[in-house]
Request: fold
Amino acid sequence: MTGASAIREKHDGEMVDRSNVRLWLRLLTCTTVIEKRLKRRFADQYGITLPRFDVMAALDRNPAGMTMGQLSQELLVSNGNVTGVVQTLARDNYISIAPSPTDGRASIVRLTQLGRECFTGIAEAHHEWIDMMLEGLTRDQRAALYDLLGALKISLADDKGKEQP
Amino acid sequence: MTGASAIREKHDGEMVDRSNVRLWLRLLTCTTVIEKRLKRRFADQYGITLPRFDVMAALDRNPAGMTMGQLSQELLVSNGNVTGVVQTLARDNYISIAPSPTDGRASIVRLTQLGRECFTGIAEAHHEWIDMMLEGLTRDQRAALYDLLGALKISLADDKGKEQP
DNA sequence: GCTTAAAACTTTAAGCTTGAAATATCGTAT
DNA sequence: ATACGATATTTCAAGCTTAAAGTTTTAAGC
Reply:
């Protein structure tokens, strides 16, 4: 690890007409810094990984349970990935895997009592860490950033070179 | 910043609602979507991975060469990670690894002629893909987003819970 | 010269990630 | 009923990622 001082832009340099690339790199750097910081704190203070937290958070939002495919869609990761993360969470008794009563192909994944209890505390810390990291922005700045990212989401959905594999 | 708003801001650290978490999730989603899209296009059209592109981009900006440690710092990844990526790039003759003339511990990594030629075309495509993805934002929106992300970087640098590993 | 701490780097183990191939099941049109 | 394409999931290989432990070299003090 390079340490907390490495808050520099990934590819800063040419002031040419690369403003869009620079915007993207700044977006990437901010996200990377937050993600690595959360990852480290999850590991240090709770012995948990970010992907596991993400799965538990999705299950906490869906108490009725989710299929593997729903998890994959919601978390923007592959099916095979979900399989692996879910298996270790089940091994540690944080979640349960039950066959779907209506579809023999699907499984229903749920938080166990233990999983729900652990998750509550971790989510609280997660919430506080993010509050602290955003403390330097005013309320208006946060609102403006939220709205601009909404516009970016729309721009991404409209991206021309998107889908023709 | 008005005095009235400063009073409300005082308790932001323990906000009851989850607006900061939602802001973070939106930031993460936008970054993830762009990253996955770039990754897929790099793989499909050039048979290259994102980490390799990042290393080549760093070396392209530093024609005199870089040490492994410099690469690690600039790319925000660990030393061991750089070792692996650099080895495969060297195996494929995109980069060269030479011992440092002044420091027997260090190596100097450089783009080869082949690496530089390949990188130029890929970087051009990279630039265009990003332009297309940001097409839905006005010039003003891009500038505002860039500035807000700058403010976020400062906020992250000031994050209190930052260092106690 | 000798010792020693720090620095640059590599190795290792564990885990995440993906895409492709394999397996099993479902739904439906014969 | 049965054959067939679609769907849900698992398995697998290859690559990325990190932290921790190990190696070699440097530089500083004695």
